[in-house]
Specification:
It is built from 4 helices and 7 strands. It is of the alpha+beta class. The protein has 2 domains: about 55 residues, no CATH class; about 45 residues, no CATH class. A 3-stranded antiparallel sheet has the order 1-5-2, covered by helices on one side. It has a two-stranded antiparallel ribbon with strand order 3-4. Helix 2 packs across helix 3 and helix 3 runs antiparallel to helix 4.
Length: about 110
Amino acid sequence: MAVSINKELLEFVKVLLKIKGMNSSLFLSKKKGMADSVINGRIITRTKNLYALQISNFEEIVKFSDEINFIIGRKNKKLKNAIFALSDSSVKNPLLFWKNNYKKKSNQWFVNQ
């Protein structure tokens, strides 16, 4: 998933993904005026709409990983681990695999140290 306040940018990325054979969905994720985030103990109110672009089909996610991928190493590793957990027959319980390797903090998953 990619998120941005720049809807036109995400629409452009959606077209590029379609050219590569990957379907994606663009939707309004958070509305302007929402107080949905806390930074340093302060509630943050959104001043702009936040849009999200998402690939949902597992085969297309694998294709994204193989052909495009992330530049940011931690995101790349997280994607590879998720694909491994869901596709490798040695992983009997993907959810347990994920919980053993990642910890949820706020709304994000972080590698266990």
